[in-house]
Design a protein that fits this description.
The structure is a single chain. This protein is of the alpha+beta class. The chain has one domain. The protein has 8 helices and 5 strands, in the order ααααβαβαβββαα. The chain has a 5-stranded mixed β-sheet.
């Protein structure tokens, strides 16, 4: 007898099929909808927690420091974007991926909150590539000072995705069945250049396909009409362009854009 391998679609159609063996609570009616509502609440709590309040308080000083050093604006938008809840479909897909990779997807004890780095996340765009490094370092330092256990990674993939990710932890409450239980979640801040952000927005579906391992490289590497060929090659070109723009700014000695 051949056992059919679980797929992301299996989890989406019947979330309890695979994951209920780990945490039976996920098979309860309304569990996923309840999780999404919790994530939305957490997004607001993270926004108003001590660490991110300090980030907002320091933002102007950081912008001035970067401007004094480079003559350029740090952020594309002077207002930091809000934190958002991760969608249930993607949560289910990532849990299945982790489960198949033999990783822990739920805590053994305590509330049945998925172990993911980005249940709550935000993405910040910087005008220049060195602004990404600058802001990433500032967030890392601030997170350490506030005991948020921050971890910074510099992402660069063969698929053309370039950004810095900073994860940190916050204490929240998980509401389930009329009660609330304390839980610590991990949140994510993605930082990328303006060009890389626009590239990511335009080609996000193709990054998702690559992340799932769909299609062999030879299916697209020699087919310029394949969207994956365009997305992945252009991602590397834009990363190079980001570096060239920064070098041109420094070589010309111009003041770049006016301070935002």
């Amino acid at each position: 007898m051949v056992t059919k391998k679980a797929t992301p679609e299996t989890i989406i159609n019947d979330p309890g099929a695979t994951l209920a063996r780990i945490r039976p609570e996920v098979a309860l009616p309304g569990y996923w909808e309840n999780l999404l509502e919790n994530c939305k609440v957490w997004a607001g709590l993270v926004e108003s927690a001590a660490f991110w309040r300090e980030v907002k308080s320091n933002k102007e000083a950081w912008r001035n420091e970067y401007f004094q050093s480079t003559g350029s604006s740090l952020l594309c938008n002077p207002v930091l974007p809000p934190f958002e809840a991760k969608g249930i479909r993607r949560i289910q897909e990532k849990l299945l991926e982790s489960h198949e990779a033999k990783k822990l997807v739920f805590p053994v004890e305590g509330p049945p909150v998925p172990i993911l780095n980005d249940l709550v996340r935000t993405r910040i765009s910087c005008l220049y590539i060195d602004g990404v490094e600058f802001l990433g370092s500032k967030l890392l330092e601030t997170g350490k000072a506030f005991g948020a256990n921050p971890v910074r990674t510099r992402e660069g993939t063969i698929d053309g995705y370039f950004a810095q990710h900073l994860t940190f932890q916050e204490d929240v409450f998980f509401g389930l069945g009329g009660g609330k239980q304390p839980v610590r979640i991990t949140c994510e801040v993605q930082i990328a250049s303006l060009l890389a952000t626009r590239m990511w927005e335009a080609s996000h579906p193709h990054y998702e396909i690559a992340r799932k391992g769909e299609g062999a490289p030879e299916e697209w590497q020699w087919n310029p009409k394949d969207p994956r060929f365009l997305a992945r090659q252009l991602g590397h070109m834009i990363h190079l362009a980001d570096g060239l723009l920064m070098q041109l700014r420094e070589a010309s000695g111009t003041q770049g854009l006016k301070k935002d």
